[in-house]
Specification:
single chain, 69 residues, mainly alpha, 3 helices
């Protein structure tokens, strides 16, 4: 049995509002998705950094297609 101990950043398919980016980051960091959404909102309001960061993660991170059991 092979055991992968590393985690990958993936977009969430179950906890998503737009593309699952915030849900995926929250899952990766083991924090509440609302905190990540607020951070992205603040970054968006303080400049366009939040938009560009969200867009880059949306393009770069694969969608989580694992089946939860």
């Amino acid at each position: 049995m092979e055991y992968n101990s590393y985690r990958r950043l993936m977009r969430s398919t179950t906890d998503r509002r737009i593309a699952g980016v915030c849900g995926g980051i929250a899952s990766y960091l083991n924090i509440d998705p609302t905190v990540v959404r607020i951070i992205f909102l603040l970054a968006l309001l303080c400049g366009s950094f939040g938009f560009w960061a969200y867009l880059i993660v949306w393009i770069a991170a694969p969608e989580d297609n694992r089946i939860e059991r």
